[in-house]
Amino acid sequence: MKYRIVTFGCQMNEADSEVMASLLDHAGWQATSASEAADLVVINTCSVREKPEHKVNSLLGELRIEKETRPELLLVVTGCMAQREGRALVKRSRWVNAVLGTRCFHRIVEVVDRARAGEHGLVIADLADDPAKVRCEPEAQQRAAPLRAFVPIILGCTNFCSYCIVPHVRGAETSRPRDEILREVEALAARGTREVTLLGQNVLAWGRDLPGAGPGQEQVARGDKGSVRTPDERERGMFAELLRAVGDVDQLLRVRFLTCHPRDVTEDLIDAVADLPKVCEHLHLPIQAGTDGLLREMNRGYTVDQYRKIVDRLRARVPGIAITTDIMVGFPGETDEDFARSMEVYEGIRFDAAFMFAYSPRPGTEAAKRGDQVPRATIVKRLNHLIEVQNGITVERNREEVGAVAEVLVEGPAERGEGLMAGKTRTNKQVVFPGERSLAGALVRVRQTEAQLWGFRGEQQ
Description:
Elements: E1 2-7, H1 11-26, E2 30-31, E3 40-45, H2 50-69, E4 74-79, H3 80-85, H4 87-92, E5 98-100, H5 108-116, E6 122-124, E7 148-155, H6 166-170, E8 174-175, H7 178-190, E9 195-200, E10 217-219, E11 228-230, H8 233-236, H9 238-247, E12 254-258, H10 267-275, E13 282-284, H11 292-298, H12 304-317, E14 322-329, H13 336-349, E15 353-358, H14 376-399, E16 405-413, E17 420-425, E18 430-434, E19 443-451, E20 455-460
Parallel strand pairs: 1-2, 1-3, 3-4, 4-5, 5-6, 7-9, 9-12, 13-14, 14-15, 18-20
Antiparallel strand pairs: 7-8, 10-11, 16-17, 16-19, 17-18, 19-20
C-alpha cells in the first residue's frame, strides 16, 4: 500500500507531515510522489489565508474525479483547515474518508485502518489532545534523518492577534518538556541531522505553561474571550536556557528558531544569539504593520518605536545578523497615509527579506467582523509596491556582502547548473558554488562573488 502526503502552509505543518510519514512507514506503508499510484492521499492543510484553502479545495476536486475511477482510494484531510471546518468539510466533500484536527494527526494510522475497515466520514478534532508525545516514540524516529530538521517545541498560541485564526485552530500554548525536546534533538543528531530549527507559532513563549513556571500577571487581550499572561522574569529567560541546552548536543552544528513575537525578545535571548556558537545569526521577527494605530488594532502588543529598538539592539549586539519579517497589507481601516508611513518604517529598518502578503479575512476573528475592509484592488496595488521596494532592499543588502567569506552548510546539488552545490549561510541565505557532491553535509567556507535576490553565487575557499 502506498501513500502520498500533500502539505500546505508553515514549517509546523511540514513537521507534522514528517511525523505522519514516519508513522505510516512504521505501519508498513510506502511513500510515493505520484497521486495515481497512491492508495492513500493525506492533505495537510493551512487556514492562515484564503489562498491555501482555495488550493486545497481545488485538489479535493481533482481527487474526487480520481476517486470516481478508484473508489478504494482513501482521502484524509488534516491540519488547520480540517480543524476549522471539521464535519462541515466531510459534508461538503463526501468523498473524503476522514478529517483529523491539528492535535490529532498522530492518530493517522488508526484512522486509516478504520477507513479501510469501512468507516466513512470520520472526524477527530479534539484540541485537548497532545500530539507532542508521539515525536520521541520509536516509530517516529525510523525515517532517514534530514540534514536540516524541524523540531516543534510549543504548540498553539494565546496571543489572539485580531486577524489571526491560529489560536482558534491550533489551541492554547502547550510546551513540550525540556528533556523530551533534548531527546529528540539528540536522536536526530545521532542519525545525521546537523541543523535543527526549534518551532512554535510563538516559539519564545516556550516553557511558560510547564510545571514550575512563575505565576505571571494577567492582561486583557483584545479579541480574546479570556486573557493572556504576561511572563515573569524567570519565564522570559526559559527559552534562552533551552537554546543553551540544545547547543550543547554533540554532532549538531547549527541551531535556529522561529517564529518570534517581538514582545518576547529579551536581553537573555539577544545574549544567547550573540554568545552561543551554534545559534545562527538570523531572527525572523514579524512586524506586520508600520504604524502604532494599526499595530494596536491588530492586538500586537508593541509600538513601532519598541520594534525599532529591538532591531537596533540586535544589530548592535550581533554584528551581521540577518533580520527577516512578515508584513501584512490591507488590514481593515488601513488608509493611504497608514501605508505611506509604514513604507517609511520598512525602508528605514531595511529588512534582509520579508514575507509579504495581503490581509485575508478569517472566519471567527475580530478583524473579519469589521466594516472597514480595504478594497481588494487597493490591497493588490499596495502589495505590489511593497514587494518592489523590499526586493530592491534585499538585493542591496546582499550586494553589501559581496566579497565576504561565509560559512555554508552544504545541502546538496543546486537545482540548476551542472557541477554546482547549494547551501545556507548562518544568516539563512542561499549560496550556490562549484563543488563536488561529496561536500553534502559539510561546513565549507565560500566567498560570495555575486548577489541575487535569492542569495549569492560564490566560490569555495
